[in-house]
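Q: Protein A?
A:
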Amino acid sequence: MPEEERHTDSLCLDWAVTSESLGASFDFNDLVVGWASPLDTLSSTQQTTAYGDISFWDVSKDLQISMPQRSLSAKGDLTRVSNHLPSLQHASRVVMQMLYAYPRMMLRRQTFPPFIHPHWHQEHLPEALGNCMSIAQLFASRTPETMPFLWKIIAAEQGRFRDKLSTFNPWEVHLCLQVMIIYMIMAMSESDADSKERIATLFETVELIGSRFLDLTGSYSSSEATEPSRTWEVWIFAESRRRMSCLWLIISCVITIENGRTCSSCGALESLALPSSKTLWEARTLDEWQMEKDVFDTGLPFSAGCGKSTVLRTAIAQLRAAGRKVAVTAPTGKAALNLDGVTLYSYMGWKPEDTKLSLNKLKGTMTGSSKQKIRKSLRETHVLVIDEISMVENNFLSQLEAVLSAIRNNQGNRSPPWGGLQLIVTGDFCQLPPVDPFQNCWHCGEAQKKWQVSEEGMICSNGHGPWETDKDKWAFRSPAWEKAKLGDSSPERQAIYQNASEMPPRHPSRRT
């Protein structure tokens, strides 16, 4: 059969090399062995598996495995990461330690492994998960005397899966597949006379279940962009499939079991649908899930990894090619570095303490020979780009606009907003909140501790305000935002801004 039409049932990584001489003892976590099924098929349509003669090993408590110096079958060769690649050995060890922890994570509903949802939307767990929790209890407290009973229970459970597989719906089939992964990890961590046969049977059942699932669904997972989930329950099913696909990829990087069968080749890894955020996955109520989902959907167009930086760089390049001088800025150095820009403080020539001054004094800092280059740069700017706009405080944006207008025009109240420059802002409106907003009044510089509280909000002793510190902290609540006339200023658009201001800020770890 031509090579392009045949794909052997093993996944051998480019950096994996066959050990010429396996020592008498080595760490199983350093092994790199390939699963018999590729990522996008998970199993072939055949329901029987021919396993090579892999003689099993003795596992001690420190996970040291004794093996003969030669493999007993060409179909069961074990390969491990080359000794001259310690970083890959470490990665393999970390992955294996993660996998070995999964059975104990099944002891409590609150600590399920990250690919098994605790089903908070249901009062009781599905039967497969409930049984797996009970089996995990037996596994955690196992003794040599109880081990035979443990494996009989697992064998009975996988027998039940096989008998009822044709009657299960896709959701039930997927639950069977999830718990079978747990049972396989349990079997991999033990060693006795029946280990080889036990693992072979478990793996055969996994392939059978995987094949049935693909027969029912046609594909294993898809992204939210291609197939949006309309309900919490539908989303849990879709997200569970995505997480299982990612887990299978991780497993295939550290474990290989060759069985000599053929299957179709895997698809491109770049098309693999990635999981959603941890907070969305761990939501315990419909309201909590809906809120997190709304935040995720709202931030999706400009969330990390979606191409915002690429779009900005393209726009900046085109503007500069047209002869426009573009200043690229961000509130922090880290954010600015991503676009080869500078901080807003650096662009304006300000120190952090300068923004605590009154507006007149702040304008005064821009005079003198020391700020001549800064003033020249500000006057020559045609387009000002501000990335990560949510981190820019209301008052800071007002100071920015007032000083730019004064320097660029020097026409008093007749100066056009923002001194006539073009303003481009990007980022989620309510992603990362400004740090310590409203510390000083931007008009007179008075510290917030001297402000008075009224029904409308906080007002400085000179009558400036009012500000509702939590609601008005965002840049889009600033009068300078209105002056810029950024996009649609209709009542409908203002309502969107208002709703956005009432949303809880997203934590950095929730970025996708």
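Q: Protein B?
A:
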Amino acid sequence: MRGRNYNGLTGFSSHAASMLTSLKNNLKPRNIDRYKSSSISAIYKKGSIDKKASPKLLTEIREKTIRENRVRRLKNIIILSVIAMTFFLIIRLS
């Protein structure tokens, strides 16, 4: 007859049970106030942001991000092609 603590995992029951308990506890919501070093609450300031961006600034930001993405994409393509060529040469010469 099986005991009350039987969970179907023979030999690893205590380790598996503690693992499952740990996983369940990690999913529970916590109050983070007791873990903070100060008594200041972690709530964002209430209010609105009054800063405005001019259309010229927005186009500059947009062009800059497009340039950065293009450079990043080019670097990735070069690295990938070098790795692919190296792999191809290793297979071809062996």
